[in-house]
Amino acid sequence: MQNFKAYVLIFLLIPFSMFAEDGSQLWLRFPNVKNGISADKIISKGNNPTIEIAKNELTNFWQGQTVELRTDKALKNQKDGYTIKSSSDKITISSSKEIGLLYGVYHILRLQQTKSNINNLNITEKPSYDVRILNHWDNLDGTIERGYAGYSLWKWEDLPNKISPRYKEYARANASIGINSVVLNNVNASPNILRKDYLDKVKVLADIFRPYGIKVYLSVNFASPKVLSGLENSDPLNKNVQKWWKDKASEIYQTIPDFGGFLVKANSEGQPGPQDYGRTHADGANMMADALKPYGGNIMWRAFVYSPSKEDRAKQAYLEFVPLDGKFRDNVIVQIKNGPIDFQPREAFNPLFGALKKTPEMVEFQITQEYLGFSNHLAFLAPLFKEVLDSDTYSDGKGSTIAKLTDGTLRKNKFTAISAVANIGEDKNWTGHHFAQANWYAFGRLAWNHSLSSEQIADEWIKMTFTDNQDFVKPVKDIMLTSRESVVDYMMPLGLHHIFASGHHYGPEPWGDYKGGRPDWSPVYYHQANEKGIGFDRTKSGSNAVSQYFPPLDELYGNIKTTPENLILWFHHVPWDYKMKDGKMLWEELAYKYDSGVKNVREYQKTWDKMQTYVDSERFAHVQSRLKIQTKDAVWWKDACLLYFQQFSKQPIPYDIERPVHELEDLKKIKLNMGHHN
Ligand code: BDP
């Protein structure tokens, strides 16, 4: 009898374990679809590898009517876009390009999976940006800078001979959300990536990605000519150096005819660059641009530059780049981090946006959560991306949003682009946290259409990744949509920034004062807490960073009364007893913010636990356990920051919020061994 019970138990468990899910299928799960339509229900002329992929997706997953795939040259000003029209017996997808047809197929599959209406379709889609690019910070030794999902997907040791099946899966996932370019390697680039043996490896990846509409770019090291070929220097005005880059370009394009171009981090955080030879960023970028020009390649030149100086770090990119406006070749685009410091949970937008009038600009976001709890914290980033894209810079008058400045609406550039640092690694679920997949998804969707709302993106993603059951969708969407603000609240509310532990950027270290090191890597440099108050004075009486913003923002941010409170400590040094809009003192407001961040995460735990019946056990348990870490970390942040700042405010922690559970002295002793420099 006992044995019988055991058999029954095993029997019952088998189906569940078969359905256990590891997240490897991302948002392309189609759990209830055994197969799609038969091949004779697809009408298409001609053959092409991209069309073949589109057909396969349809025969595997599409369960609706006949689909016609039609290339139509008349649609060419829609770029990679497409139209979808349906009649009672047929859906017609048209595009000027094969890749547009594949995108259209993913569109109807998304409609099917999210149970949206598929009758009487009359859809026209055109991407917001020409180049929708992921930046991988992957090193050639397989590690990833700021990567929290295991080692790199790219197996450089095995390439070009051994090919991981995940290369294709990766390309498919990107194509399904419209991502059409990738930078394979870290911006802190090893010169070796340009060696012939590495280019042969890169070629293999480019060949796999091509049918999915994806172009390969590489990060390059400015000193490559000297390091790789022993040239006397890497001075951009040296004829030998110029020739070296031209020869290298010709070699690359012989290997990879549709190579996208270079991403360059120069004269930043110790990387070599044109300034090593007294030249400018424009001299450096133009030399490379000239080399790639004959082949149609682009240069993405990063504006993330700052040096240990007396100048407010938030001002430095603007100061270096504005004088160079108009001096760049037309195949150069300046890649600008969304904020002027460094991917903080919330920053004011980077004042360089709009300040370059004659030079194309693009945004760099960070999908990998370097400053948002790695892959341990659930933080849905679409609201952050949207907040930045929708920010009005006033550069060309009211309505000059970052989206309009970069998508070609306000500035007619040769091409437009948007980028983000990827969070992808070799983990089975690709991104470490199941919900971090949503950030990859959200970036792709917004790069395609920046007017989508965060809510719509979350809604689609949840339905495709988990279930369309509203009892699950609604509460989980609420978690996602509030999650980024919760992280801001328990880490750095009211515009606080960069008070992270040094190096790894995981936990709190507001006491960090790296005397003898770089002041601009020290938390105390950023929060400026003292007996009077807290915050970085960027007004006229301080660093005057506000002057880099266009009117009326310079005045608005320069005045404590008109500065949005969620950035008040970004722009002002605010007295502890300053009265906030809700009537609370700054100190109290700060305490309640920290507390509300913690409370929210506790609510997320409760909500998630109730979701158990709607989710497979594997993903349920994984997310549940990550939420425990997130809650513990949130309490750690709150205690560390409040106990530390309390030494200056000398005020009690408001009595109606939870008491700290840590001693400040103990928290100061925590040293996480997570490596890295700044
Ligand atoms: C910072 C990272 C560092 C990167 C650098 C960059 O801490 O690892 O190399 O930015 O973007 O966010 O170049």
From TrEMBL:
The active site is at 269 (proton donor), 342 (proton acceptor), 370 (proton acceptor). It comes from the Bacteria. GO terms for cellular component: extracellular region. It holds the Pfam family Glyco_hydro_67M. One of its GO terms (biological process) is glucuronoxylan catabolic process. Residues 113-430 form the Glycosyl hydrolase family 67 catalytic domain. It catalyses: Hydrolysis of (1->2)-alpha-D-(4-O-methyl)glucuronosyl links in the main chain of hardwood xylans. Its EC number is 3.2.1.131. The keyword Hydrolase applies. It is an enzyme of class 3 (hydrolase). Belongs to the glycosyl hydrolase 67 family. PANTHER family: ALPHA-GLUCURONIDASE A. This is xylan alpha-1,2-glucuronosidase.
